[in-house]
Design the sequence.
């Protein structure tokens, strides 16, 4: 199973990028992982929020392969504790999913097409976070889940 983390928007600030790189390197001991930054459409500043969501949705759906298992990160999704996330990831691996894509949508959310395409919608928290912090939280939680699956010492209960 390969883990892909996709995010709409700009590159990370250096202080965030360093943390993401560290956790990504650690995750690679368990699963292949890849980050994909999806740039906003060129005319994003001239579009209304619904139009922007629509354009971003077209890009996202166009990048997905039919066999990709899409996990949409959204504050209205299902919340997990760390052990439940580990179980979720292990279940995806047991189901022989080829690619599990974790998607952080745009500033205004995602289009209905993306919501409908998602296999699962996950909420890190009912709070709303800046996208860069969500990327860092996602990286850390994926690493934590990997260590839980392997019964390693990183996670303390």
Sequence:
């Amino acid at each position: 199973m390969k883990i892909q983390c996709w995010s709409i928007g700009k590159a990370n600030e250096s202080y965030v990028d360093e943390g993401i790189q560290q956790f990504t390197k650690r995750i690679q001991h368990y699963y292949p992982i890849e980050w994909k930054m999806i740039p906003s459409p060129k005319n994003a500043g001239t579009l209304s929020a619904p139009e922007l969501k629509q354009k971003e949705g077209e890009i996202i759906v166009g990048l997905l392969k039919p066999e990709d298992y899409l996990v949409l990160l959204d504050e209205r999704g299902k919340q997990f504790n760390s052990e439940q996330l580990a179980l979720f990831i292990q279940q995806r691996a047991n189901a022989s999913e080829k690619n599990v894509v974790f998607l952080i949508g745009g500033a205004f959310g995602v289009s209905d097409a993306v919501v409908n395409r998602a296999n699962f919608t996950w909420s890190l928290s009912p709070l709303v976070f800046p996208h860069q912090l969500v990327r860092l939280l996602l990286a850390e939680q994926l690493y934590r889940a990997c260590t839980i699956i392997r019964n390693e010492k990183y996670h303390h209960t």
Observations:
- The beta strands are 2-8, 33-38, 69-79, 99-104, 120-123.
- The CA atoms of residues 11 and 37 lie 7 Å apart.
- The mean pLDDT is 94.
